[in-house]
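Renewal narrative, Specific Aim 1. Our central claim is that a sequence can be written position by position from structural information alone. The example that follows is taken directly from our test logs and has not been curated for this report. It begins with the structure tokens describing the chain, in the order in which they were read.
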């Protein structure tokens, strides 16, 4: 374990001050993200008259960017060693993209191609920001503050996501689409300004990769232009990121558990709307209100995770939260036969599931920076996100096909099965016992 890799924050700039700037940047970034997620589909459908296929492509660009670019960006962030600069560049890129969209809308030049290009650039910037941000948090708070820091950042993320979605509707209704885009650009600009207050110590330099056999040395013994050092070194570092997950029992268990939880969540997100709106004939307004309860549950889970982890230990908490996910999902399955209104049981299911998923997301987030050297943190974190996010589109597609073939209720049972199965990797890994 690389316990000596994390450093204290710079002298004269205590962790609390830098973390306040980091949290403020995260709040501004989250607000901008929420506005952006709201505005892109509206532009596609309401302004350009495009259909659901195009909206699906827009929504897929974010996950596709993480899957295709995540590890490469992680390697680049580790190599450059300037995560704050990477975060700032990503925020400025998203700010510029939204300003360009506002100008195109104002001048009547907005097209589907322009909107798709904007979604791609926003997705790339999201990968860069998320990857760099994951390496900044440990350097700002140190090992002792990781659990509470991740909890506070998760609370901020969930709160700004809910608030930003509501603000998007209000801005659109009162002011109009161009100013909604400007508001999003302003949020990203504010994030960039807050990032300037984050102070980081220097970290140990990343060890240089060995030259690849057969490459021609250049001056001072370095590989020349015709050598294979950089591509080969990048491939080795990418493989090393996945190998670190495989060789660490704690990281392997947490990654596998997260993959199962995310797969279950995507199964639920795919099938639950059909089950609630079509099979149960619940009003669309009532279904939309469930999203608010999900956000509230997530805020509560993120806030409670450090306390629960400290009292129960990480392994017991993650195992328990996964097992409790099974009855939580079954509340939706049996809502039509349980006493009382169906919507009451659906509300309870949504609230509890949001709470449990947030607990699982926050509890254990500090394990990665504790067991991975800092100069490899972005690469290993990107490899982990590639796996945990990679299962989501596949789970969504398979769930949709399964629901079309056998109906929604059997697929809801699959959701419950995946939720419970997420407990097994954690419960069977003894190396997680010391973590709290």
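The sequence written for that structure reads:
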């Amino acid at each position: 374990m690389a316990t000596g890799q994390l450093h204290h924050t710079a002298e004269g700039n205590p962790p609390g001050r830098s973390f306040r700037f980091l949290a403020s940047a995260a709040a501004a970034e989250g607000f901008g993200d929420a506005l952006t997620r709201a505005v892109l589909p509206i532009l596609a459908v309401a302004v350009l008259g495009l259909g659901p296929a195009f909206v699906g492509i827009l929504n897929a660009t974010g996950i596709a960017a993480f899957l295709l670019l995540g590890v490469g960006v992680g390697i680049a962030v580790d190599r450059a060693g300037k995560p704050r600069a990477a975060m700032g560049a990503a925020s400025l890129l998203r700010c510029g993209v939204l300003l360009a969209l506002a100008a195109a809308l104002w001048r009547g030049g907005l097209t589907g191609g322009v909107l798709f290009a904007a979604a791609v650039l926003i997705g790339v910037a999201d990968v860069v920001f998320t990857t760099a941000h994951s390496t900044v948090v440990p350097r700002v708070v140190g090992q002792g503050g990781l659990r509470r820091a991740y909890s506070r950042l998760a609370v901020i993320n969930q709160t700004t996501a809910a608030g930003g979605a509501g603000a998007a509707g209000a801005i659109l209704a009162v002011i109009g689409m161009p100013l909604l885009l400007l508001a999003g650009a302003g949020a990203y600009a504010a994030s960039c300004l807050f990032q300037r207050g984050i102070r980081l110590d220097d970290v140990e330099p990343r060890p240089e990769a060995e030259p690849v056999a057969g490459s021609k040395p250049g001056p001072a013994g370095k590989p020349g232009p015709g050598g294979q050092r950089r591509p080969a070194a990048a491939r080795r570092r990418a493989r090393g990121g996945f190998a670190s997950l495989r060789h660490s029992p704690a990281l392997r268990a947490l990654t596998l558990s997260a993959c199962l939880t995310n797969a279950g969540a995507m199964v639920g997100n795919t099938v639950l709307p059909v089950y609630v709106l079509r099979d149960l004939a619940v009003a669309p307004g009532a279904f939309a209100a469930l999203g608010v309860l999900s956000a509230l549950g997530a805020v509560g889970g993120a806030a409670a995770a450090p306390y629960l982890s400290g009292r129960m230990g990480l392994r017991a908490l993650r195992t328990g939260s996964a097992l409790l996910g099974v009855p939580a999902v079954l509340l939706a399955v049996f809502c039509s036969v349980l006493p009382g209104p169906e919507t009451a049981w659906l509300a309870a299911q949504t609230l509890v599931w949001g709470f449990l998923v947030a607990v699982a997301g926050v509890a254990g987030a500090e394990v990665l920076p504790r067991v991975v050297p800092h100069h490899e943190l972005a690469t290993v974190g990107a490899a982990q996100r590639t796996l945990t996010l990679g299962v989501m589109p596949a789970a969504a597609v398979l769930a949709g096909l399964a629901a079309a073939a056998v109906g929604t209720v059997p697929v809801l049972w699959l959701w419950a099965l995946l939720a419970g199965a997420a407990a097994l990797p954690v419960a069977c890994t003894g190396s997680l016992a010391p973590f709290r």
